[in-house]
Amino acid sequence: MGNKAIEAEAPRRGPRPGARSPLQQAQRAASRRAIVAALRGLIGDKPYDVIAIDDILAAASVSRATFYRHFKAKRDVALALYEAVMAGSLDHFRALGALRPGDHAAAVKWVEGLVAIYRGNGAASALILQLGASDPVIHRRLRADRQWLIAELAALAPGFAATRGDSEAAQRARVRADLWLVMLDRVCVEIAVHEPLPLAGHYIERVAEELGGLPRPIERPR
Questions:
Q1: What is the pLDDT of residues 18-47, one digit of tens each?
Q2: In total, how many domains does the chain have?
Q3: What range defines the domain where residue 197 resides?
Q4: Does residue 1 form part of some domain?
Q5: Measuring CA to CA, which residue among 158, 147, 172 is closest to residue 216?
Q6: pTM listed for this prediction
Q7: What is the dihedral of CA 206, 146, 194, 198, to 10 degrees?
Q8: Within a domain: residue 2?
């Protein structure tokens, strides 16, 4: 068989039709990050409600077509910003698994660490809290993610272990854990983003006490 026949039978190399090259994928990811970063920067200077898509386009230096290749609306950019903030705090939440029951000092230190994360995210932290209260779509997403986080922590942190299962006690434990996460979010935003919160240390102490008081599974006698 001649070389030409071999070449004809050889599989074609390179991306399949319609597939993006690694360079195109990198450019697409970079433009998405630029759009999210643009919104993050803009909310530090003006209220979210008055920010227009044109403002985001100008800040991100992207075209309208590029914007709509990634997002359908401004809300979707806010959700992407929330996802980035959430991803950056997950390891800190998972560190709850290392807290010893009754170690109040460690619980306080953990809450202080979360406040620092909120402070680092600045106006994005306040925006997520605001949209969770005013936007039904984002409210449902935050509520679903809290339940996901509770399930994730149930296998790691003693204070969340009682949330497993379908019993009435487990349901009550999930409600209590959910209320604690809501309170934690509000307190962290108040301390880290808004005007200095009077008696901030006492708020941190109280949130840490609630963490120590989350229900734990009853240990059965051996």
A1: 566 776 677 778 999 999 999 999 999 999
A2: 2
A3: 73-222
A4: no
A5: 158
A6: 0.82
A7: -10
A8: no
- List the structure tokens of 217: 């599974």
Closest CA to 31 of 65, 54, 78, 75: 65
Phi, psi of 73 (to 5 degrees): -160, 175
Residue 14 in any domain: the answer is: no
Question: Alpha-carbon distance 27 to 151, whole Å?
Answer: 36
E strands within 67-215?
A: none
CB atoms within 10 A of CB 162: 21
**8 Å CB contact between 114 and 108:** no
Residues 67 and 78 in one domain: no
Quote the pLDDT of residue 194: 82
Residues 78 and 56 both lie in one domain: no
| Rounded average pLDDT over 202-211 | 91
CATH code for position 178: 1.10.357
